[in-house]
Amino acid sequence: MIYSEFIMDYSKLKKFHGKIENAHKIEEGKNLSCGDEVTLYFLFDGDKIVDVKFEGHGCAISQASTNVMIEQLIGKTKQEAIEIMKNAENMMLGKEFDENILGPIVNFYDVKNYPMRVKCFLLPWKTLEIALENDNR
Question: Which of 27, 45, 53, 95 has the CA that lies 20 to 30 A from 78?
Fold first, then answer.
C-alpha cells in the first residue's frame, strides 16, 4: 500500500517546516512533472549537519520523504548523509541497499512499485545531493 499510515503521518509533520534565517546552505528542488517543490535550509558545524528545515509543497510522498530525510540527517556528517542518500536512492531504483543505514526510510520501500511516485520520493534526496556536492562554504 503506497499511502501507509507511516507516510501519511510523516506527510503532516510540521517539526521540520520553516526557514533557517542564517542558513549556511540553501538548495531548491522542483519536480517539473508534478509541481512538487522543496527548499532545504542547512546549518553545519564543520562537517556535521546540526539543523535542517524546509519550505515547499507537494504530495504526501514528497512531504513525508522530506520530513523523514531531515529527521535522519540531523547530527550526521556530510559523509554519513551521502551514505544514507545513496542507500535511499538504491532502494527506490530496485538496487541493493542496507536497511540498517536507512532505518525508518525503509517504510517507503513499496513506493518503488509506482514509477510515477518514485520522483516524488526522490525530490528531497536529489536536492540534498546537489546541496552537498555544491557545498563550498
Answer: 95
Q: What is the pLDDT of residue 3?
A: 83
Query: Helices in the chain by DSSP H: which ranges?
Result: 5-11, 60-73, 78-92, 99-102, 115-133
CA distance linking residue 41 with residue 102, whole number of Å: 22
> What's the full length of the chain, in residues?
137
Count CB atoms within 10 A of the CB of residue 43.
Answer: 16
Compare 15 and 137 and report the one with higher pLDDT. Answer: 15
Own/partner long-range contacts of 98-105 (Cβ < 8 Å, ≥24 apart): 102/72, 103/72, 104/6, 104/68, 104/71, 104/72, 105/68, 105/69, 105/72
Cell numbers that stand for 12 in this block: 503532516
CB atoms within 10 A of CB 105: 23
State the pLDDT at residue 1. Answer: 67
Asked if 82 and 132 touch (Cβ cutoff 8 Å), the reply is: yes
Task: Answer whether 2's CB lies under 8 Å from 20's CB.
Answer: no
Q: What is the pLDDT of residues 67-126, one digit of tens each?
A: 999 999 999 999 999 999 999 999 999 999 999 999 999 999 999 999 999 999 999 999
